[in-house]
């Protein structure tokens, strides 16, 4: 079994450049072996129809929706596969089988034939950061109006998300939530860019009870959609995630009685696109400034000027050295 992890620090891709590595156990189950970043890079056809995967390596991401620990439940839910990692075990639409611990043991159906369906929830710490919405088109949620039911449509480029939010009557007024839409290319990790379409309700405060949240959007045909639920508590909610393909890919994600929600939405990853031709890679102002500085510094004229100064400086150093030697 060979597995090649890409080392190119300037990769722009929506699919992993390495072929999925596999092995067959002595009990007759074939496993796919993946690095954590492959969860975002592999397309459905690259999974080779496998139902069991082992996750290795370490992937740290500054993006809450795209860190491995946050994305794994959604990935296994959408693909309906078993995923074994060092931190948890997920069984398709049945969700988390075991949590963190010194020894993780779970019984799994090798074909992921689960009769129950659980929301792909991630319990986040209290200091967990909400999604960075600086690249999104967004609107702050009116929590007072949402107590009676609040409807909003938000579009980014040609992609639109329809939101419906109803909160409990005793909602705290100091809480802040935003409804946001993104359609474009976003970076993750240090090495990759991915074409995405995202609808999300994101908040920085807790102690808000949502009686109902509903998000509906039409996604690109050549895309995979992942339900995202991140909360600081384990809620007891009813949910529905439905994908309809009737000429367009219409996705609806609904949640009832959600508590302490940090991020709730649908993450769509578009496959088989030319990032340079079809999209503009989104960057924040800091990234742009850094990129402009590097480009300026390595400009040919600037490099010639730096070389000229360095030659002059070396001549000066030699002259000063000779002077001090003669004075001794």
Automatic annotation (TrEMBL):
Alphabetical keyword list: Hydrolase
GO molecular function: hydrolase activity
Vanin C-terminal domain sequence ranges: 132-271
UniProt-listed Gene3D superfamilies: Carbon-nitrogen hydrolase
UniProt entry tagged with the keyword Hydrolase: yes
Protein's recorded name: Vanin C-terminal domain-containing protein
Source species taxonomy: Eukaryota, Metazoa, Ecdysozoa, Arthropoda, Hexapoda
């Amino acid at each position: 079994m060979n597995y090649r992890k890409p080392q190119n620090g300037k990769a722009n891709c929506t699919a992993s450049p390495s072929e999925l590595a596999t092995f067959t156990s002595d009990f007759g189950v074939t496993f796919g072996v993946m690095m954590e970043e492959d969860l975002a890079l592999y397309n459905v056809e690259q999974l080779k129809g496998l139902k069991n995967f082992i996750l290795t390596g370490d992937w740290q991401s500054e993006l809450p929706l795209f860190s491995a620990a946050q994305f794994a439940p959604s990935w296994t839910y959408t693909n309906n596969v078993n995923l074994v990692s060092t931190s948890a075990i997920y069984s398709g639409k049945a969700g988390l089988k075991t949590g963190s611990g010194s020894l993780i043991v779970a019984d799994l159906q090798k074909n992921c034939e689960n009769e129950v369906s659980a929301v792909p929830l991630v319990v986040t710490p209290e200091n967990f950061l909400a999604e960075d919405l600086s690249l999104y088109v967004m609107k702050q949620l009116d929590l007072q109006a949402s107590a009676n039911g609040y409807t909003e449509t938000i579009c980014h480029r040609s992609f639109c998300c329809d939101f419906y939010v109803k909160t409990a009557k005793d909602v705290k007024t100091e809480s802040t939530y935003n409804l946001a839409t993104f359609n474009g290319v976003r970076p993750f990790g240090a090495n990759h860019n991915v074409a995405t379409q995202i609808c999300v309700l994101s908040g920085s405060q807790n102690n808000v009870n949502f009686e109902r949240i509903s998000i509906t959007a039409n996604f690109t045909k050549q895309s995979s959609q992942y339900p995202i639920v991140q909360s600081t508590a384990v809620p007891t909610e009813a949910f529905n995630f439905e994908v309809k393909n009737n000429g367009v890919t219409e996705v609806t994600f609904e949640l009832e009685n959600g508590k302490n929600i940090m991020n709730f939405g649908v993450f769509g990853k578009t496959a088989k696109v030319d990032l340079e031709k079809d999209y503009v890679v989104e960057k924040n102002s800091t990234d742009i400034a850094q990129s402009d500085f590097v480009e300026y510094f390595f400009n040919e004229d600037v490099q010639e000027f730096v070389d000229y100064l360095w030659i002059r400086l070396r001549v000066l150093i030699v002259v000063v050295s000779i002077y001090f030697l003669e004075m001794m």
